Each structure stands twice: as structure tokens, then as C-alpha cells.
Amino acid sequence: MMRRFFDSDIWWSFTRSWVTIISAIVAAICIFGAVLSPWIAPHNPFDLTSIDLMDAFKPPAFSEGGDARFPLGTDNQGRDVLSAIMYGAQVSLLVGFAATLFAVLLGVTLGLLAGYLGGTVDALLMRIADIQLTFPSILVALLIDGIVRAALPREMHDQIALYVVIFAIGISEWPKFARTVRGSTLVERNKEYVLAARVIGLGQGAIMLRHVLPNVLGPVLVIGTLNLALAILAEATLSFLGVGVPPTQPSLGTLIRFGNDYLFSGEWWITIFPGLALIIMVLSVNLLGDWLRDALNPKLR
Amino acid sequence: MNSLLEVRNLRVEFPTRRGTLVALDDVSFAIEPGEVLGVVGESGAGKSMTGAAIIGLLEPPGRIAGGQILLEGRRIDNLPYEEMRRIRGRHIGAIFQDPLTTLNPLYTIGRQLVETITTHLPLNPAQARERAIEWLELVGIPAARDRIDAYPHQFSGGMRQRVVIALALCAEPKLIVADEPTTALDVSIQAQVIALLKRLAREKGTAMMLVTHDMGVIAETADRVAVMYAGRVAEIGPVREVVKHAKHPYSSGLMASIPPLDRRVDKLAAIDGSMPRLSAIPQGCAYNPRCPQVMERCRQQRPDLLPAGETRAACWLYAHD
Amino acid sequence: MTETPMLETRDLARFFDVSRPPLQRLLAREGKRTLRAVDGVSFSIPKGTTLSLVGESGCGKSTVARLVVGLYSASRGDVRFDGQDLHAARRDPAQRSRMQMIFQDPYASLNPRWRVLDIIAEPIRAFGLVKGDAAQRERVAELLTQVGLSPLDGVKFPHEFSGGQRQRISIARALSSNPEFLVCDEPTSALDVSVQAQILNLMKELQSRLGLTFLFISHNLAVVRQVSDRVGVMYLGRIVEMAPAETLFTSPRHPYTRALMEAIPDLEMSGRQRMPVGGEVPSPIDPPSGCAFHPRCPLANDRCRAERPELKAHALTETACHAVEEGRG
After folding, report:
1. Cα separation of B236 and B225, whole Å?
2. Which of B5, B198, C94, C268 is most buried by a 10 A CB count?
3. Which of B1, B48, B2 is nearest to B27 (CA)?
4. Is residue A260 situated within a structural domain?
């Protein structure tokens, strides 16, 4: 299995592109840094006992007045910015992955049904997708968040806020997947291997799952990767606006918002570094997605 | 006296990540003025690629890696793109399998014909339009004067192929390269188009390289035929000889495997196996693993085209040493 | 007493709605448009024999193929499979496993993500014919050998095979449910001529060994001659001539059949001048009145333009042609 992978065209095209290799390494560092933050971060920004207000507003270690204990400086409460970024990236990535997964599951299922069954099911699902696509996705997310906020009491909302954000971002992205999958399904369902399965009398569900699904997933992988970058950005936007993840679990967006207050009073590092981390993470994932699109597209090979 | 077209030791390569594939190897033939040369072979034999190399439209990353192509004694395989484009319209016309790839869907057929005519012939637009109508009538478009301003999609497949033929011939080239011109058409339409091509080539004295997998079309149309196998010419000679008394075991096998229309046979003469992939062309004669008359020498040494009766065959059976 | 035919169709028809969307239709003030792909086709195939349907693109031959295995439902008429109604037969797995289909495009008829082993075993598993992994593998190996491939090929993927080998895999898959009736929709049209001969030989050999019944769809008259017992010639959704293969090829009667044979390039190089039939196949959305072939027919008269001819038997041949019937042909 491994040998087949390293012999494949995908791996070959991967090794041919420096940009892609660097993106992959950067993305891997981001993911490892985020996931392993409880163990490898220099400080725990949530451990109140280890935070000293005397350390507040320390500039990055490399500039004048910096402290070697805080490589990227500290914020207004004396928390290490680097550690906060690592913990925050974890939340950002979690929301990004979960929201994308949710959008993929929903979009692929509905797209497959619409494309294979056709008729009324298709018309209904695609009109819903059309309508949703006329709203900017961030607006959809804001709307859902607003509804949940108004409907639920404060403490209950804080508890489920993370899930609300995941749901809101996921639901606003599903039409992309549904449309792509529907398009490929329309092509695959008329291919002769599907007809052969129908002659045997295989049920519609079995044909969709075993025959059509594996053959329509290629583009989903590409859009999914590109969408991961978008979802991370969407989460950051929501959190920056203060309607995203709860302040007890700050994400990169939350950190940027907090730091924003000090940007013009000289403590630029509190907001700039989380911002840079966000850009690097999103850019590397995006470049990987671009490469994947080209590598999987036989026309461009 | 030069031939109209001469292909000498043509070699076309495709660099891939697993090494270089040799798609055409040492292909040589000539076409005389007014002659129809049929190029026949199974898919992957390199027949279409030979045509593409001649008209300078090899698909990248394919490239001519050796040999020469001469049109009236002048090399055309190393010309810059722009110069080749002028030759393509004026001296070599091209007809492809799918007429839709040749016709621009956004322009009327009249505009495309007039453009080609005025580019290559010293006629003003009004004269060119008259000439275009004449051509449409010549290829059998009914009510040509009324339909000249129609768009390609307003024609049926057979009619479109007629328009393509008019387009290929209207600049009065000396050579037509026709790549599977009738394959996409129904049998009855196919017969009409073949009859048309044959008549026009004869009337205008145009030479033609007719690339097809259909031996029947070749037998009806061509003067000489080149049988290709695995990127090489296996046999070349007068069409009657190749069809009735093929010398190369591959050509005779190919002829025998065509199901006859006039009788039923219990077991068709099939050739075992299939054509090798470009990445696995056997040493020696490329046909040796499938050949019923294979000898030790065939596995070691590659035969050149050798005189074999009235044809020439790349086969050790005809070596006299 | 005659044996029940393997397959019988009576007045089989299939129409497709090719209207534009309702709003556009309203704006263009046009009615519904119906494509009559198959319009009243009747035939029967005795067990162990091959019936071929020939014709040019758009004549409805492939639609008939799909109708008789239940991929399309009929708009009119009925299909009987071994004496039973096709719908009832399709609902019963034991009956369904007796019919299989072979397709034209060897590159689209095998799921590219499946191993050959799983492709061939799919019908075996779907019908629960062989229990146990080891026994299934053994059965697949046997089938691969039967179609001239190696049992070791089972672990490979379809893209590792040539067109002809893929068609062999398709045949192995079709045979895996032990069918008696095979519908072959242009099974060799996408293949090279030397490979076509291999596949035709294989199909003929399997037929005589397994006693299969074939419905064979093709546009190639020479191929049809090699495999058929009976031949039906289709034009615009109808059968215009139906006869035993020998009779049809030695004395074609319908002007369209004769035109088709005339159109085939001559390999004998007798130098005979062919007279190709003029015109093109009309659109099945708006077929000509009377006999659909009349605009291209050299024998057409007023009756042909007004009245549609029915299939009528003369000796061994059934023809739908006024000219033949009146002795003008």
C-alpha cells in the first residue's frame, strides 16, 4: 500500500513543487504546534497561578526590554503570546476541521441524493442551495449565532457556543460540496458500470454508496482542503466580531480582537503575532489545496 | 524530382517521469503529387501522431526528436509556429475526426471559409464569398447560398464534416491530412463523405494522407497504404497488394481478422494478444511476441523495410542474407 | 408444441420527453416534444439463438437493449422473459440472475476504483451464489480462465488492462451469475479489429458451450453476419426488415437494408462503383409521415408518403415496405 502511494502520480507531483513541500511542512508545524500545545507550549495561558501581572506588556524577546521567557512578548495580563497563539490555533483548527467535516458530510450526502435520484428531490435541494448561496456565508453564520443567542440563556449558550460556531460555519458551506458532488454524480450515474450494477438489481442505496460515491470524492478532497482555510478564516472573523467561540476558549480571532485595543498604544505584538499565525496557517493550507486541485485534474497534468 | 511530401526517419518522443516514450520510431514514407496514401493501424500504432507531426500539431509534451519532414523538398519540421501556421492553411489542409474541433462555433461557416480564402488566395471579400458558395455546393451542401450564414451547430454531423472538407480544400492546398474523417459518421453518411473526398482529390489533383483504422475505407480510396504497428511502419505498398497479398505477418493477420460481409465463418482469424504499450515495446521486431512465424532473429534484431514482392515489409522473412 | 422463447416483445415502445423547461416553452409558444426512440417493436428470441438488431445511430437499437433488461420502463407494449412478465421477473432475484448485459465502452463499464476480483464477484455476492471468501475467489479464478485471462489478474485494477482485456472482464462479470440470456450492446465497437475478432470468437464459443441466448446490438453488418441467427434492421424506432441471417444477407429486400449494405466499403476491390444512399437519418422527434424512410428512398411514391407500412411476411422475410409488397422493389 505504501509502495503504491510513493509510486503514484500524486506523490510525484508533490515532490516536484517546492511551494507545495514548504506549505506541507508549514501546515504540519502549525497542526503539531496546535495539537500538542498543552505539552510543548512554554506556558499555560489559562493557569492563573502561573500568570504574573508584573509580566504584562513585555515586548518580544528580540526587541529592547524583551524577556527571554516570553519569545513573542506578553499581553495586558502577562500571558505569553506564543503560548496563547498555540492554544488559540488549536481552537481555530478544531473549529475549521469540524465545520468542514460537517459541511462535507451534509453536502456530499445531499449532492449524491440530488444527482442520483434527480427529479423533485434534485430540484428541491438545489433550489435551497441556490437560495443559500445568495447570502454571504458569514451572514448565514451570524444569523444562526444570533438566533441561538436570543433563544438560549447566557450560561447555556457559553457551554454550547463552540458547537454553534461549528454548525453555523458548516451549514453555510455545504452548498459548494453538494453542487460539485451532484455534478459528478450526474456524469457517473449514466456510466456503464452503474448500469451493470442496475442490471444485477442492486438497490439505489448500494449503488450510490459503493459505486458512485468513491468516484465523486476526488473534487471533494480539493474543495474540502480549500474550505478548511476558509472555515478557519470564518471562525476568526466571527470571533473577531465577538460572536464566535466563548472568551474562555480564545481562538486566533479572539486574540486578534483583544490585541487590537493595544495596537495603537505601542503594544503591536499582541495582535500582530496571532494575525501572522493565522495568515501562515491559512496560506499553507490554501496552497496545499491548490496543488491538490492541479494534481488531481488530469487536464492539467 | 522531389516527392510532394517526404518523411525521413521520423522519431517522436514523449518525455514522461518514468523515462522517454518513443511514440514514432524511424518512420519513413513519401507521398507523390495527387496520390492518396492510406495510413492504417490499430489504436496506439502512431498513425494519428504521424499526421499530427506533419501538420505541426503534436500535442505537448510530444516532440520531434529525429528525422525530417520535407514538403516539396523544403524542411517543415523545424519551422517556427507562425510560419507553420501559414503552411497549414495554404499548402496542407487538415480534416479531423470530430468536425466540431475544426469549426469555430461562434462564427458562421461563411465567415470561416471567407477568412481562410482571403488569407491564402488573392481574392477580395466579395469574390471570396462567391468562391465559398461554390465550395459549399461542391461538397454537397443543399441551398448553399442560403446556408452560408448559418452557424456550425445548425448543421448535422455529416453536413458539418462536408463543411470541414470545404474548409480544408478552399485554399487549394497540395496535400490534405485527413485523420479518421469518417469514423464519427454513420455508415450511410460515411459512404457519401468517402465518395466526396475521393472525387475532390481526383478533380483538384490534391494528394491526401488518409489516416484510418478502417481497412474498407482505405481499400476504396487509397493508391498506396502504410500499415503501422507500435510506432513503426510494418509494411508499405500498393493498396491492392497489401489488401490481397499482405507480406508482413501483421498486415496479413490484420486483414484476416476483418469479419467478411459476404459469408459467415465459424472462427474468425484473430491475432493473439494486443499491441504493446509504448512503455513496453519488445526488443527486436515489435510484433515478435504475437507473430506466428517468429524466428530467433526477430527477438534480437529489428528489421528495416525490406523489398517483399511489390511492397516493402519490415520483416526478417524477406531478408536475403 | 413450440418451446417458450427466451425473450419476446410485443409492440414495445419507449418515448422520451425532450421538451424544454416549462417557462421557456411558454415563452417560445411551443408544445411538449416527444422523442419516439422505439415505437412498436415486436420480436422473439428462441432459446440458444442470437437475434441481432442493426441500424444507424438514433434508430433505437440501444434503447431496445435497455428496455429488455429493465433499465428503462416501456411506454407501451410488453416484454416477456421466458414466458413471464419482465417486471415480475425483475423482482425475483432467481429470475434476474438469468439475464445479464455487456456494454460498449470497456473504459466506462468497469468501476475504476474496484479490483477486478471484486468487479467479477459483485453479481456472485449480490445473488448469494457462492458462499465463503475462498469459494468466491475460486469461482472468480475459474471465470477469468474461461474468458482467457489469468487468475492472477484478479488483484489488478481496470486501468492496468487493454481495451480487449477489459471487455473480457466485462464478459466474466456477466457470466458470473450463470445467466442464460445476454444482452450485448455494441460489445466490439470500441475495439480494434484484431481484438474484435478475439472477442467475437470468445462470445461464440461461450454461446455454444453454455447454451446462451443473445440479443446482439450493433451497427456493423459484417460483425452481425458472423454472430446472428436472425437479424432485425431498425430505422427510426421501428424494425423495417427481419429475417434469418443468411436470407437477409443474401437477399435483402427493404430498400434501407439494401442501402446499408451498399454503403459498406468493399474489401474485395472489385472496382464496383457504389451508389451511396443520399440524405441523412431524420430526427426521431419529428419523423417523416408515412414510411419514415421515404425521403431517402428511391422507390417512394405517394402511398409511402401517406401511409405507414406494417411488417408483413414474405417467405422467410418480414418487411415493412409498400414497394416490396406491391412488387415494385
Report:
1. 6
2. B5
3. B48
4. yes
Asked whether residue C169 is assigned to any structural domain, the reply reads no
Q: What is the ipTM of this complex?
A: 0.91
Q: Tell me which residue in B195, B243, B259 faces C269 most closely, judged by beta carbons.
A: B243
Q: Which 3 state secondary structure label does DSSP give A62? A: coil
Q: How many domains does chain C have?
A: 1
A202 vs C126: CB contact, 8 Å cut-off?
yes
Q: In whole angstroms, what is the distance from residue C295 CA to residue C303 CA?
A: 13
Residue A69's SS3 state is coil
The secondary element (H helix, E strand) that includes residue A217 is: helix A213-240
Which domain covers residue C320, as residue numbers? 288-329
Which residues, 6+ apart, have CB-to-CB distance to B186 below 8 Å? B158, C56, C57, C219, C280, C281
- Furthest-apart CA atoms within chain C: distance in Å: 69
Asked if B257 contacts B215 with a C-beta cutoff of 8 angstroms, the reply is: no
- Give the model confidence (pLDDT) of A177-217 as tens digits: 999 999 999 999 999 999 999 999 999 999 999 999 999 99
CB of A117 closer than 8 Å to CB of A181: no
Quick check: is C235 in a domain? no
What is the rounded CA–CA span in Å between residue C237 and residue C67? 13
Question: Three-state SS for A267?
Answer: coil
Which of C291, C253, C236, C324 is CA-nearest to residue C56? C236
| Separation CA C328–CA B247 (nearest Å) | 47
Q: Give the domain extent around A227.
A: 17-45+69-285
Distance from CA of B36 to the nearest CA of C (A): 16
Residue A219: CATH number of its domain: 1.10.3720.10
Cβ distance B257 to C274 less than 8 Å, yes or no, reads no
Is residue C300 included in any domain, yes or no?
Answer: yes
Match 518513443 to its residue by C-alpha cell.
Answer: B22
pLDDT digits (tens, 9 = 90+) for C100-148: 999 999 989 999 999 999 999 999 999 999 988 999 999 999 999 999 9
Residue A115 placed within a domain: yes
> Total structural domains in chain A?
1
What is the pLDDT, as a whole number, of residue B149? 93
Please determine, for residue A72, whether its predicted confidence score (pLDDT) is greater than 90.
Answer: no
Neighbours of chain C (3+ CB pairs under 8 A): A, B
A51 found inside a domain? no
**A154: pLDDT confidence band, cut at 50, 70 and 90?**
confident
- Position C269 pLDDT exceeds 80: no
Residue C318: inside a domain, yes or no?
yes
